[in-house]
Amino acid sequence: MKKKVFLIAFAAAALIVAGCRSNTKKENAGKPACCTEAVPTEKCASCFYGTYEGTLPAADCEGIRTTLVLNEDTTYDLTTVYLDGKEEEIKTSGVYERSGEDLIVLITPSTGFKTYYKIVENGVALTDAEGKSAEGELAEFYILKRK
Question: What pTM value is reported for the model?
Answer without folding.
Answer: 0.71
